[in-house]
Amino acid sequence: MANDRYPSEQPRSSRQEIDAFLKQVNKAPAVLGAGTQGRLIFALDATLSRQPTWDQASHIQSEMFTATRDIGGLQIQLCYYRGFGEFETTPWLRNTTSLLNEMNNVSCRAGRTQIERLLQHACRETRRDKVQAVVFIGDCVEETVDQLFASAGELAMLGTPVFMFQEGNELVTKRTFKHIAELTGGAWCHFDSSSAQLLKDLLAAVAVFASGGRRALEDFAQRKQGEVLKLVHQLK
Asked: Domain coordinates of the chain in residue numbers?
């Protein structure tokens, strides 16, 4: 039986999912003042099921800094959860070496998801100093979805979109991640172990958006080659 808490959805191809993701990124309401450096929370599920793809996430994150160097740069805060209630955050980082060093010090541990804790952390951070976007990479949900949606609603009121990247295609996780993205004005996209280059490009697109808003994203799409450029052109 369908769950009334989730919006109805029709099956779609991977190409359609990516197309929809980029369209949502292009619509999200990030606005920066002149000289303002974008702030992005990069959050990861570091429970044991993510161990096989943790190295992949560690290597692709450098593209987020690289893509934003010409538009004022980006500050990134790494957040991750694992083990028995362990939730860690870093200072705000300004270069890819610092972020990679932080990620290299993390190992995955068995534990339950703490997505609500992440969303509440993002609320506190953006109340202190505006956070332009939150990126989350995970593969499951083990929490009460209504509480997640309430926290997502708080972020929506603060104007901080959440971009949910789902590893795998588990149905309840998909519905939950998509609804969090929709509530906050962000976007959802699915990836797997064969999608490293695509994930790298999409993370770069979100970073450009966080650093420079929609206009910067459009300029990035004009420079970018391959599938992302083709898909962004379709949006117009």
From this structure: 38-213
